[in-house]
Amino acid sequence: MTGRKLRPPAERDFRGAAHDQRVTARIGLWLGIAFGICFLTGLLSQLARAGSGWPTSPVDLYRVTQGAHVVAGVAAIPLLLAKLWSVYPKLFARPLVRSLPHAIERGSILVLSGAALFEVVTGLFNVAQNYVWGFGFPAAHHVAGWLAIGSVLVHVAVKLPVIRRGLTRGDGGERSAPPGGILTRRGFLRGTGLATGVAVVATAGAAVPLLRPVSPLSWRSDRGPQGVPVNRTARAAGVRAVDDSWRLTVVTPGGTRAFSLAELRALPQTSASLPIACVEGWNQSASWTGVPVADLLRLAGGAPGSPVRVRSLERRGAYRSSLLPGAHAADPATLLALRLGDEPLALDHGYPCRLIAPSRPGVTQTKWVTRLEVEPR
Ligand SMILES: Nc1nc2c(c(=O)[nH]1)N[C@H]1C(S)=C(S)[C@@H](COP(=O)(O)O)O[C@H]1N2
Ligand SMILES: [Mo]
């Protein structure tokens, strides 16, 4: 027996380059940027879904902000794992709590790690499973976003001197990995950067059409009937093809009017190239043809400018109806689309007609529309 005593591991036992302050600070900076983008674009997504005040142009606005949200969220996953790996030896630092500021700092890290993990996991599930939690998801994702950003700010404020030192110290003439380690600091940083780059490129095709050829894991892009993805099929929504008794009913304060499909087709048609931009980050632009909602409101005796409730044939789904903001209802590019490309809409795209409005989240582009109701302002 040697004279060494068994003792629990201590922070100083972890000497790998990954645990160096300089590494932690750099990965923390990248992660902070990714989180910042997620947070801001997340707020924009809330605004866009709420509708009023969200602009109708550029038509790709939501497509860009939500694409950035999901791409930054994907980038955050390897960065978060690397950051946690970099700092986990601190779990073995003793005493657990030294002072009140120290307790606050440690508490904020607990909240930060929990909220950050919650955000990437719920975000990923949402992307992969298409709203398994229905309406619960946006609310929970939103609350955890505030928790994450709040604890990031506390964390950065408390750690500012350490972060500054970590970022400004040179690499100290590092030639080889520390004893017992296989990676240099630079090696760990490069590996993290590479993993982040691969994760982003492999998935970003969903949001960035140019990347599609090199993005094997991009979800739903280009696939689906008529070259446009379908999240919710007519079958899943319990919608069956309509017969001649189908009508579109338009209710305005100045009068109500019902249109048959033949009547809608006989009205002057407008074409617009507009994207479906899903909150999941995928988007697909297409050429839609149909009747401007503003024209329908006028024909029914109303004046465009007030919000319009858009109702579908769907009975139960969370997205069976949406509220079209007044500015969008008045925009001449906001269509009740009858055609996609040069064909009538496929049933899965909302036959006989769907809403398509510029710069709106996909969830509000209601399919299988049967009723438009002007709401009080
Ligand atoms: N009636 C109805 N319209 C709907 C949906 C729905 O579930 N029901 N899904 C929305 C969502 S989430 C998106 S992204 C767009 C495009 O969805 P799709 O891919 O299912 O056509 O349609 C929207 N319109
Ligand atoms: Mo969506």
Automatic annotation (TrEMBL):
<keyword id="KW-1133">Transmembrane helix</keyword>
<feature type="transmembrane region" description="Helical">
    <location>
        <begin position="109"/>
        <end position="127"/>
    </location>
</feature>
<dbReference type="InterPro" id="IPR008335">
    <property type="entry name" value="Mopterin_OxRdtase_euk"/>
</dbReference>
<feature type="transmembrane region" description="Helical">
    <location>
        <begin position="139"/>
        <end position="158"/>
    </location>
</feature>
<feature type="transmembrane region" description="Helical">
    <location>
        <begin position="192"/>
        <end position="211"/>
    </location>
</feature>
<feature type="domain" description="Oxidoreductase molybdopterin-binding">
    <location>
        <begin position="243"/>
        <end position="375"/>
    </location>
</feature>
<keyword id="KW-0812">Transmembrane</keyword>
<dbReference type="InterPro" id="IPR036374">
    <property type="entry name" value="OxRdtase_Mopterin-bd_sf"/>
</dbReference>
<dbReference type="InterPro" id="IPR000572">
    <property type="entry name" value="OxRdtase_Mopterin-bd_dom"/>
</dbReference>
<feature type="transmembrane region" description="Helical">
    <location>
        <begin position="27"/>
        <end position="48"/>
    </location>
</feature>
<keyword id="KW-0472">Membrane</keyword>
<dbReference type="GO" id="GO:0016491">
    <property type="term" value="F:oxidoreductase activity"/>
</dbReference>
<protein>
    <submittedName>
        <fullName>Molybdopterin-binding protein</fullName>
    </submittedName>
</protein>
<dbReference type="Pfam" id="PF00174">
    <property type="entry name" value="Oxidored_molyb"/>
</dbReference>
<feature type="transmembrane region" description="Helical">
    <location>
        <begin position="68"/>
        <end position="88"/>
    </location>
</feature>
